Amino acid sequence: MNDLFAEFEPTTYADWEQLLAKALKGKSLDSLDWQFDEHLRLKPLYRTAQNAEPIYSSKSANWAIGERFEWTAQDLAGEKSTFLQALQNGAQVAEIHLHPAAIPHLGHYLEGVWLDMIDINWCFAQLADFDLFLNFCKKNGLNLQIKGCFLFENLTLEAQFTLYQQHKNDFPKVCFFNIAIDSSSEGSRAEKLAQMLLSIYKVYQFLGTMQQVSAELRLGWSVGASFWIEIAQIRAVKKLWVALCQSLDEHTSYPSIQAETQTCISENEHYNQIVAAAQGLSAAIGRVDVLTVCPRGGWANVSEQARRLARNIQHILIEECHINAIADAAAGSFYLENATQQLIENAWALFRKKIEN
């Protein structure tokens, strides 16, 4: 069979530049550059990319569907019904914001739940709430059954080290370390990635091996509105993790990246749902391990219909779009590969400076 492309003359980069210059009518091609971060720019035209290999890992390309719940004990039957209904309709990872008043009723909430089949991220507002939780679980034998991770508001890494030393034996199946990145927070993207890498390195120094770090660490990701850059950032996290493992001469075993779309505050709920779907798609293409899509009106007083629609966004991405069938859907996109590589190089340089200082 003849080579189809042999019938056409090859087009060079200079040819494309000439066409663009004509279309721009005298404007510089550089005027179309996009500065997406401090010192980082993307050009409108790429014909190649550096280090454009797909990102593979030992994990499946599937991600788990997450969902958030609020347990306050103000409506025991209703809160439990919402939880069970979500599990029956596809939720695989539960993020439970646990109020102190609900802790004595954990047996009621978890009745009929197969704890070996679901990961639960337990969220505590303060350490005193964790102490109540610990006592209840040990008294009722739940501490050896539950798996997932513990999340605390404003708990330093050093405090997480202490908590791990004191209670890891009490909860052998639970991760104690959480490092989170909020894409909408202040600071450059490369700086936030470098700070995340520094925190991972500190956990490595504490635990001793990267394999143990991957088993004990949850990377939290708040998905922002910049679709393409969110994909590049998540991919950069994975490649930076590999670079850190290689620099330490450690076996590469990936951590769990758990992402949640940000709440959109528009009064138009349909618009909010479209935004959530786009953010969820960017996280899926970037290939996170757990994804929680925020309902169209936020989590406060969320209706069952809004929960179902948010959950079904992920069902569509998995069952109809088959995003999970591809190891790295963004691989080979020169635009995304160049954005990813710029983030990696700048974040790694900043990380090295932090280590040296």
Keywords, please?
357 residues, alpha/beta, TIM Barrel, 11 helices, 16% strand, globular
Indicate the low-confidence ranges by residue numbers: none
Q: What is the total tally of β strands? A: 11
Strand arrangement in the largest pleated sheet? 7-6-5-4-3-11-10-9-8
- Describe the largest sheet: 9 strands, parallel
Report the radius of gyration as a whole number of Å: 23 Å
Total of domains: 1
Structural class: alpha/beta
CATH class: Alpha Beta
Label the CATH architecture: Alpha-Beta Barrel
Terminal-residue CA separation = 61 Å
Number of helices: 11
Mean pLDDT score: 90
Q: H/E element string?
A: HEEEHEHEHEHEEHHEHEHEHH
Helix content: 40-55%
Bin the strand percentage: 15-25%
CATH superfamily: Methylmalonyl-CoA mutase
Shape: globular
Question: What report would you give on this structure?
Answer:
- This protein is of the alpha/beta class and 357 residues long.
- It has a single domain (64-356), classed as Methylmalonyl-CoA mutase (TIM Barrel).
- Helix content is 45%, strand content 16%.
- The chain has eleven helices and eleven strands.
- It has helices at 13-24, 76-88, 106-110, 127-140, 157-167, 189-207, 210-216, 227-247, 269-286, 304-319, 334-356; strands at 34-37, 40-42, 64-71, 93-98, 119-124, 148-152, 174-175, 177-182, 217-223, 256-261, 290-292.
- The protein has a nine-stranded parallel sheet.
- Helix 8 packs parallel to helix 9 and helix 9 (269-286) runs parallel beside helix 10.
- The longest helix has 23 residues, at 334-356.
- It is globular.
